[in-house]
Amino acid sequence: MKLSSSVFNQPAEEEGEKKTLNSELWHACAGPLVSLPPVGSRVVYFPQGHSEQVAASTNREADAHIPNYPNLPPQLICQLHNVTMHADAETDEVYAQMTLQPLSPQEQKDLYLLPAELGAPSKQPTNYFCKTLTASDTSTHGGFSVPRRAAEKVFPPLDYSQQPPAQELIARDLHDNEWKFRHIFRG
After folding, report:
1. DSSP characters for 123-185?
2. Locate the TF-B3 domain: which residues (predicted)?
3. Rounded to 5 degrees, what are φ and ψ at 99?
């Protein structure tokens, strides 16, 4: 789970609505080298690479059950119509699903890719830290340590008039699960 100052106390979406992942949290999990092209931009799609990725993610050999399209060009220039960010429920691995439409041969002759269409910089948050939680971190007797600099940078300020200084933190993970923590300053 990732904690970010921007995900504290955000209201849950109404039931029945499709849940949208927090973009800032998704980018934090994806890492600083990931950038998503904006909707409406032109992108290059590599069918062979996609087939190999599908084969690898489904534990199949590349030639085993993947259809072969000999008349398909090695790359297609496409218009990006939609980008949806996802997170695997079991592993928290993040990925994006994109809806692409190949451009006609005439549209391909009339275009050139602009630098702006090559992807925007990552929207990774600047104030965050990562912590993998274990069962003891969520038990009533357990606790976990957060580096002081990370706590001061990411968490809301503590009320030092209390003894010991403490506060309750509410965070949401990638799947919109709410987690409650008691933040206590020791030391």
Report:
1. ---SSEEE----HHHHSSS------HHHHHHHSPPP-TTSSS-EEEEEEE-TT--EEEEEEE-
2. 129-186
3. -100, 120
3-state secondary structure of 90: coil
Taking residue 161's Cβ as centre, other Cβ atoms within 10 Å add up to: 6
User: Rounded CA gap, 144 and 44, in Å?
Assistant: 45
What are the counts of helices (DSSP H) followed by strands (DSSP E) for the chain? 5, 7
Q: Whole-angstrom Cα distance, residue 30 to residue 22?
A: 12
Strands (E), 12-160: 42-45, 76-87, 94-102, 128-130
The token pair that represents 3 in the structure block: 């904690």
CA distances (Å), origin 184, targets 9, 108, 143, 187: 18, 60, 10, 10
Q: Which two tokens stand for residue 156?
A: 């809301």
What is the tens place of the pLDDT at every residue in 5-44?
333 333 334 444 456 788 888 888 888 888 898 898 888 9
Pairwise CA distance, residues 100 & 79, whole Å: 6
- Residue 28 structure tokens: 């934090």
Chain position carrying tokens 């002081």: 148
C-alpha dihedral, 144 to 150 to 152 to 153, nearest 10°: -140
Q: What is the pTM of this model?
A: 0.65
